[in-house]
């Protein structure tokens, strides 16, 4: 594990190595590669990627591997894990095309008892319900609804509800998670589908986020110019309809394929928007809410690799508690295999009760090619943060050297 971490840190702390590596990941994530370039079919290529990048950032290709990884992460002191099934459909705004990393998500239907059954939706349902069985009470299930296939994303594009089969699957998932005290994060995806995703996320909140309890969070991408106004609109729905608003804030994961006009012009604008949303929620002051209108019930989840954002948010949260000022519950998340320094810095910030904040590690599981597509987006999203990993590289190199000296000294 140490040597793998050192290898990845060596690559990620050097731009001349990182950029070509990202291009290679992009190449392998494309569908319909010939056998020799197919991650699933070429055993040598599969083994190389599996033992390096995949094992560093992903939980497993099988349920058994995934359960073992989940236990390892929680043993490090994290409150829990966020686990997602990697199947999804990606839309590239530049090319106008959509594809599914890994197995092609073709629309297949069969007749059963006179009812049309979409095999892709059923496969997604089975994989997502299976993911619930890999985690425990207090953990979080993240879902990518586009993974349910063309029938679902085509409905999202038109502004329609997805097929009843998908609605039934979401109801089953929400019910199982509520019964087992597992929360759900509805992941943000391409803006090509996002309005439909927001619609079903809000519907799930209405049903499951009752009595001040949060089962479902929706994800808001702060790099979007519209994110602040969208949050205010959804806050209004929560206030009007009396459900608790599950607010997860990220910077954004689709900058390489999204319509650039939708995204803030500078990283500074994105940072300011992210911090404004996070700190506004913690102060219970967003737009007119908390000023001229009562602030509704909100639970906040901050997913970020930006140390300043999360540390300042936790400090503000503790300051308000100490001063007896209103605030909201907050939890934090970073990706498995990335920004461990940020995660452990948060864990070291004990509150007045002596307990650390709720920090989660987010991982994904699924086939090699499905997860490579996921890793590529995360690499693009966190490129600036990844390039600032020289300190981690130096520490890993020093520890590897210490262990080698100890080994030869003992001999």
Gross morphology is: globular
Rg over CA atoms, rounded to whole Å, is: 21 Å
| Unreliable residue stretches | 102-107
Count the DSSP helices: 15
What is the straight-line distance between the termini? Answer: 23 Å
Average per-residue pLDDT, rounded, comes to 86
Number of strands: 12
Strand order of the largest sheet: 1-6-7-8-9-10-11-12
The percent range for helix content is 40-55%
How do the SSEs run, as a string of H and E? Answer: HHHHEEEEEHEHHEHEHEHEHEHEHHH
Structural class: alpha/beta
- Main beta sheet: 8 strands, parallel, barrel
Strand composition percent: 5-15%
EC number: 1.5.5.2
Enzyme class: oxidoreductase
Family: Belongs to the proline oxidase family.
Domain Proline dehydrogenase: 134-386
Description:
There is one protein chain. Helices cover 50% and strands 15% of the residues. Residues 102-107 have low confidence and may be disordered. It has an 8-stranded parallel barrel, surrounded by 8 helices. Strands 2-3 form a two-stranded antiparallel sheet. A two-stranded antiparallel sheet has the order 4-5. The two termini are 23 Å apart. With 411 residues, it is an alpha/beta fold. One of its GO terms (biological process) is L-proline catabolic process to L-glutamate. Belongs to the proline oxidase family. Residues 134-386 form the Proline dehydrogenase domain.
